[in-house]
Write a structure and sequence with these properties.
The chain has one domain (3-77): Helix Hairpins. It has helices at 3-10, 18-34, 39-77. The protein has 84 residues and is mainly alpha-helical. The chain contains 3 helices and no strands. It is elongated and about 65 Å long.
Length: 84
């Protein structure tokens, strides 16, 4: 199983939302932990797992930036006298 075959089976990583990427990553970890795959299949799953982990990190980084933006905007609009 090659990386291209895993993309065909599971879809392109860059199109996945956070939850779907996280769930696929968990499935891959479980599959690899159980073993029984040949080296090529294991490597293909490992590579996809790495890509999925990166995708999850991208989503989390984006969420963190959005939260920080909202917090900064709220802090900038707060009444300096405390009379909200």
């Amino acid at each position: 199983m090659s990386t291209d075959e895993t993309d065909e089976t599971y879809g392109p990583v860059e199109e996945l939302g956070y939850e779907e990427a996280r769930d696929q990553l968990a499935d891959i970890v479980t599959t690899l932990e159980h073993g029984g795959l040949d080296l090529d299949a294991s490597l293909a799953l490992w590579e996809r797992g790495e890509a999925l982990a990166t995708r999850c990190e991208e989503h989390l980084r984006g969420a963190r930036e959005r939260i920080e933006t909202v917090i900064s905007q709220k802090a900038g609009t707060a009444d300096p006298d405390g009379d909200d």
